[in-house]
Each structure stands twice: as structure tokens, then as C-alpha cells.
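[Meeting: bench + compute handoff]

Bench side (C.D.) handed over the final construct sequence. Compute side (W.E.) agreed to return the predicted structure before the next meeting so the bench team could plan truncations. Sequence as handed over:
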Amino acid sequence: MFRNKKKKPEKELTEPIINMEEILAEIEKLKSNLKNARGQERINTLNALGSLYFKIEEIDEAIFYYETSLNENNALGKAYTDLMKLYNIKRRQAAESKDEEATRIYMHKIDGLMKLSKDVIRGRG
């Protein structure tokens, strides 16, 4: 009736090791491809660059590529969600350093993303 249950080993909560050389090589390859990319291929490349820069915590570079992507294609998706995270990181950093101007700038950018979200949902994006 009462069994002696064996405890399952807890899963390790370690982050995957980032191979910086591989990521930097991929970034250079994508940047090279970006020069000739058009349409959806360009958007995908911009998003991939944003994602890789986010992964290596190059926040400003990630923001640049995601903003470029959204400026060219107002679509909700990874660029939108990651950009929201990045803006919140920058806003938090500005608040911690008591930089009111930067805090205001990133709050404005967050508001702009929220407006974009509403516009896309309403079909005006």
C-alpha cells in the first residue's frame, strides 16, 4: 500500500554554454547576407541578428536590429516581444542609475510598442 518512492533527481538549472566564436561568426555571416536580402528574408535576417546580439547581451545592437525590423515590417512576433524585454532592461538600468532622461526615453519607446501592438491588432499596422 505505501511504497517507498524514490526521489527523482532534480534537473540541473544550468544555462547552456554560449560559444562566443560561433555566435560572432554567425553574426558576420548574417550581416553579409543582409546587404542583399529583400522582403521577408531581410526581416528574418534582422530578427536573427537581434536575437544573437540579445543572446550575447549586446543590448544596444539587439535593439538596433529589432527596431529596424519593426520599422520595415510592423508585425507582432519575436522582434516585438524581445524589443519589449530589451526596452525594459534599458529602462531599469536608467532608473537604477537615476538617469531620468533615459528612463523617460525608454518609457516612451515602451508606449510606442504598446501602440503598435494595438494598431496591428486593429488592422492599422
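W.E. noted at the follow-up: The first helix runs from residue 20 to 34. C.D. will use this when planning the next construct.
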